[in-house]
Amino acid sequence: MSAVLDGKAALVTGGSRGIGKAIALRLAADGADVAVTCQHGTDQARAVVEQVKAMGRRAMALQADAGDPGAVTDAVQRAAGEFGRLDVLVNNAGVFPFGPLQDVRPEDFDRVLAINVRAPFIAAQIAAAHMTEGGRIINIGSCLSGRTPFPGITLYALSKTALTGLTKGLARDLGPRGITANVIHPGPIDTDMNPADGPGADAQSAYTALGHYGEPADIAATVAHLAGEGGRYITGASIAVDGGVTA
Fold first, then answer.
1. Cα atoms found within 13 Å of the Cα of residue 147, Cβ hemisphere only
2. What end-to-end distance do the CA atoms of the chain give, in Å?
3. Which residues is 182 bridged to in the sheet?
4. Residue burial 87-114, b: 16+ Cβ < 10 Å; e: rest
5. What are phi and psi of 238, to 5 degrees?
6. How far apart are CA 69 and CA 194, in angstroms?
7. In this predicted model, what pLDDT tens digit does every residue of 92-109 receive, in sequence order?
8. Taking 80 as the threshold, does the pLDDT of residue 117 lie above it?
9. Is the Cα dihedral 241, 25, 180, 79 positive or negative?
10. Could you tell me whether strands 9-12 and 238-241 are parallel, antiparallel, or unpaired per DSSP bridges?
11. 69 contacts 119 by C-beta, under 8 angstroms
């Protein structure tokens, strides 16, 4: 039996660890060739590539600073060129600024918006040029765009909320071509950046309805659904995978 994404090619930004790594491996398991980007941690990205290749898929790692529009453009073009096509784009790369509102400098604002908003916009713009009917653009947002339960995250919440507007616009612009666009809003997910046993984890778990962290695989499963046939009639949607944080 063929895998659901056989013959498809995907690009996952920030795919060297955590949620991005889980997404890359799940898409490969479902049959896709996969490219991942990373800003640092090239060894980690290469390890993901080797895992994808071990599944019999093509893979490549691309070093790219998401804050550099030229690097973002180049990464998408290189992935499409290597695979000869691009069917799935997952905009996962991002930064999490945290701190008092009064400490946010203009340069901090510019950097966060460049990475969390401009980069997904540019990646989608370039990727869409390579996509045909059935293409998928999936943005990774945050449950903190729908609920801000503690102070210090104004800039982050702003940047992730922008992805909802971006996604709806993409859905309208690209729908006539049969390309879908959706945003997934994760809740607290157990990664090395936000471990389930780390400082503040108990408070984050308490914000959920289920009372515990999720796993990167939970986000990857939703991405896989949207990337496959199950996602063909879903577009412009904001999907919470947050354990009920926004319930």
1. 15
2. 39
3. 138
4. bbbbbbbbbebeeeeeeeeeeeeeebbb
5. -110, 115
6. 27
7. 999 999 999 999 999 999
8. yes
9. positive
10. unpaired
11. yes
The reply to whether 156 belongs to the active site is yes
Alpha carbons 13 and 39: distance in angstroms, whole number: 9
Structure tokens given for 25: 């491996």
* Options 156, 207, 213, 233, the catalytic residue: 156
Average pLDDT (45-68) is 97
Which residues have CB under 8 Å from 91's CB, separation 6+? 13, 119, 120, 123, 124, 137, 138, 139, 140, 163
Instruction: Tell me the C-alpha distance between 160 and 187, whole Å.
Output: 12
What is the DSSP pairing of strand 88-91 with strand 9-12?
parallel
- For residue 235, the Cα-to-chain-centroid distance in whole angstroms is 16
Q: Can you tell me the distance from the alpha carbon of 86 to that of 82, in angstroms, rounded to the nearest whole number?
A: 10
Task: Please report, rounded to a whole number, the percentage of residues in the chain having pLDDT higher than 90.
Answer: 96
What's the whole-number mean pLDDT along residues 149-165? Answer: 97
CA distance 97 to 192: 16
Which one-letter amino acid corresponds to residue 189? Answer: I
Do residues 163 and 145 lie in contact, with contact meaning Cβ atoms separated by under 8 Å?
yes
